[in-house]
Amino acid sequence: MLKLRRATILDAEPPAGSGEQRLTVGLTGPGPPDPRPAIADVALLGRSEIGDDVIVNAEALDLGLGSGGFDILHVNLTRGLEGRSARGAEVMKLNYTSLQHAVSPVEDAALELPLERPVAVLALHGQLAPVAWAFARASPGARLGYVQTEGGALPGSHSRVVAQLRERDLLAGHLTAGAAFGGEGEAITTGGAVHHGLRTLGWDAAVCGPGPGIVGSGSRLGHGGMLALDSAHVALALGCRTLLIARMSCGERRARHRGISHHTLTVLDLLLEPVTVALPAGIRSPVGADLREGLGSIFGAEPPSRRGPAPAVERPVRIARHDWRRAEVDLPAYGASGLPAETMGRGIAEDPLFFAAALAGGTALGELQVHVGAGEAAGEPV
Asked: Is 0.70 topped by the overall pTM?
């Protein structure tokens, strides 16, 4: 049941283009209004101003959800709905909800396979910036596009990471697929978005993954990270060199995410075909004693974790069958880049392994792209 509350806008930042608008609202009721943070999707609802009478969804903030620390504007009673449909729109997103809206899908009429270009699959939105940065260093001038999948908590237009990467030319484009929306182009399926980006938009490589805020239940299958399984299978089916960006941590309080996360291990176990997985150079294995020993070689000391990575994780055959690669990482250079360097409230100093694993993935993706590009230039099959 929706938890909708009436409120008045107390403060309103200028909207970020047609994306999000940050607001402060006060819920209507007895006594003075208690200021609460809120966001509005300008493309759907139009621009809001101070003093507007609005309806907000207060559920996430009241529950104290980590990725939902604000109310969501549902409708502006003062101004009505000013959002406009895209020209030629013919497909609905957010179907059969009060916020359903029409979009023009980007899917190409012709299917050209195999695509052969590399695709990286993320577990978390926080991996996107280090992957894109490392890719640019490993493959200068190559065009990397981002396909935002389901599994996150926020629309594409609310990602400040994407906006920053686009401003710095570290991303060539941003498409949102499936139930995800708010990108520069809307796709019905992840496969349609990847095909359009690589074939029509001319991306040299693509990265797929959820938007900001992971959705999860604590179970092995009930979390947004499982969308990586679908994305990897799509990339493999399209004939792409497929790379899984490992979610790793040495600063997580939850044991199931220390070392290599159970999210990544589950996807690697369930994949129907092997994929490439990158580890920071110096780590022989992503689990067990080899991981702890490797961390010292990378960071020069015991990683800053109270409990340390879980040492007793088995590595069954279905995990070992993948193409495990090692890649050099430069944590200080990334830390000085000015790009986002925080995951779940932890920075590089508190969780270097998270960023090292993502940087290794970006470097490996760049190396795969250089190999594919060299084969194309020589007229050889890749």
From this structure: yes
Q: Give per-residue pLDDT as tens, 295-348.
A: 444 444 444 443 344 333 455 677 888 999 999 999 999 999 999 887 767 778
DSSP SS3 for 298: helix
**276-298 tens-digit pLDDT:** 999 998 776 665 555 544 444 44
Cα angle 87, 92, 98 (rounded to 5 degrees) comes to: 115
Q: What are phi and psi of 381, to 5 degrees?
A: -65, 140
Residue 147, SS3 per DSSP: strand
The DSSP code sequence of 155-200 is: -GGG-HHHHHHHHTTS-SEEEEETT---SSEEESSHHHHHHIIIII
Distance CA 134, CA 366 (A): 8
- What angle in degrees, to the nearest 10, is found between the helix axes of 288-299 and 352-377? 90
- Domains of the chain by residue range: 4-76, 118-377
Q: How far apart are CA 382 and CA 372, in angstroms?
A: 6
Token pair listed for 267: 């996807």
CATH of 4-76, one of 2.30.29, 2.40.128, 2.40.50, 1.10.357: 2.40.50
**Which residue type is seen at 369?**
Q
Nearest to 376 by CA among 241, 273, 208, 275: 241
Closest C-alpha to 278, from 244, 251, 310: 244
Helix, strand, coil % in the chain, rounded to nearest 5? 30, 25, 45
SS3 string, 267-285, reads: HHHHCCCCCEEEEECCCCC
